[in-house]
Design brief:
Number of domains: 2
Shape: globular
Structural class: alpha+beta
CATH superfamily of the largest domain: D-amino Acid Aminotransferase, subunit A, domain 2
Helix content: 25-40%
Largest sheet: 9 strands, mixed
Order of helices and strands: EEHEEHHEEHEHEEEEHEEEEH
Bound molecules: 4'-deoxy-4'-aminopyridoxal-5'-phosphate
CATH topology of the largest domain: D-amino Acid Aminotransferase, Chain A, domain 2
C-alpha cells in the first residue's frame, strides 16, 4: 500500500502517497498510542461522516489524546482527500496518533498528536461471502474486560488479538473469527459486530466490552423500524446451535451473511438478505 500514486492528507496538508511517512521513533509505533476510523463513501457521500469524526475524537480522549482538529475540520479533511484522489466510492481511513517528540518512554503527553486521512477503493470485505455466507473460526483470544482496556475506543492496541485471531482463522480456510469475551459470552468478529436470528427475532451481544459499531446501531434502528424485535443481551456459546441465521455488520463488512461458525451452520435466510439489501439502499440514499 505504500509505494503508489495518490494523495494522503497528513497534518493539514495533502502530500504524495509515497511520501506520507513517519519517523521510526513515532510513539504510536512503540506503544500503540493511536486511534482510527474506517468509513465508506458511497456515490460521493460519506456515510455518517460526523459520527465517525466524533468517534475518532472520543477514542482519542479515552487514550489521553486530544485530536487537534474539530469534527468539521476532520470532515473537511476526508472530503479533501477524496477529491484529491478523484474517488466517489471509497473506504476512508483516518488515524490520529502520538508522533515522535520529547518523550520516548511510556508517557507521551509532550509528543504531538498527529492526524492522517487516506482513502482507497475497497470492495467487498469478505469476498463472495455476501451470497453464500462467510465461514468463521472460533478465536482462542477473548475480548478483554472494560476494566483492562478502554474497550469503547477504536484504538490500535485493541486489534493485536484481532490480527492474531484472523491469521489463525485464515490458516484454517476461514474468512474471520468470532471472539468470545472475558466472561465467555459471544462478543464479535475481529472487525465487525455479530447478529443472530431465531424464531423471527434478532439477538445481538450487548456492547459492554467491544466497539458498539455505527453499522450495528444503524442495523438495530432499521430492524426496529421493520417492527422486528431486537434483543441486546449476553449470549452463551451453547446458544449458537439454536440460531437459524447470522450476519456481521461493520463499515468495511457492511452486512455480511455468515454460513458457519466452527461446527455450527446457518442459512443465508430471508431476514439476512432483507437487512443486507436495506442497508445497501440506506447508505446509497
Ligand atoms: N468491531 C470491531 C473490532 C471493528 O473493528 C469494527 C469496525 N470499525 C466494528 C466492530 C464495526 O464498527 P463500525 O460499524 O462502526 O464500522
Amino acid at each position: 500500500y505504500d509505494d503508489r500514486d495518490g494523495k494522503i492528507w497528513l497534518d493539514g496538508k495533502l502530500v504524495e502517497w509515497r511520501d506520507a511517512n513517519v519517523h521510526i521513533l513515532t510513539h504510536a509505533l512503540h506503544y500503540a498510542s493511536s486511534v482510527f476510523e474506517g468509513e465508506r463513501c458511497y456515490n460521493g457521500k460519506i456515510f455518517k461522516s460526523s459520527e465517525h469524526s466524533a468517534r475518532l475524537r472520543r477514542s482519542g480522549e479515552l487514550l489521553d489524546m486530544e485530536v487537534p482538529y474539530s469534527v468539521e475540520q476532520i470532515n473537511a479533511a476526508k472530503e479533501a482527500v477524496l477529491a484529491a484522489n478523484g474517488l466517489t466510492d471509497a473506504y476512508i481511513r483516518a488515524i490520529a496518533f502520538r508522533g515522535a517528540g520529547e518523550d520516548m518512554g511510556v508517557a507521551s503527553l509532550n509528543n504531538p498528536v498527529r492526524l492522517a486521512v487516506a482513502c482507497w477503493t475497497w470492495g467487498s470485505y469478505y469476498g463472495d461471502a455476501k451470497f453464500k455466507g462467510a465461514k468463521l473460526d472460533i478465536a482462542k483470544w477473548k475480548r478483554p474486560s472494560p476494566e483492562t482496556i478502554p474497550s469503547e475506543a477504536k484504538a490500535a492496541g485493541l486489534y493485536m488479538i484481532c490480527t492474531m485471531s484472523k491469521h489463525a482463522a485464515q490458516a484454517k480456510g476461514c474468512s474471520d473469527a468470532m471472539m468470545f469475551d472475558y466472561r465467555g459470552y459471544v462478543a464479535e468478529a475481529t472487525g465487525a459486530n455479530i447478529f443472530f436470528v431465531k424464531d423471527g427475532e434478532v439477538h445481538t451481544p450487548k456492547a459492554d466490552c467491544f466497539l458498539n459499531g455505527l453499522t450495528r446501531q444503524t442495523v438495530i434502528g432499521m430492524l426496529r423500524d421493520m417492527q422486528i424485535k431486537v434483543h441486546e443481551r449476553h449470549i452463551l456459546p451453547e446458544e449458537l446451535e439454536g440460531f437459524e441465521q447470522c450476519w456481521l455488520t461493520g463499515t468495511a463488512a457492511e452486512v455480511t451473511p455468515v454460513g458457519q461458525i466452527g461446527d455450527y451452520n446457518f442459512e443465508v435466510g430471508e431476514l439476512t438478505k432483507r437487512v443486507s439489501t436495506e442497508y445497501e439502499k440506506l447508505v446509497r440514499a
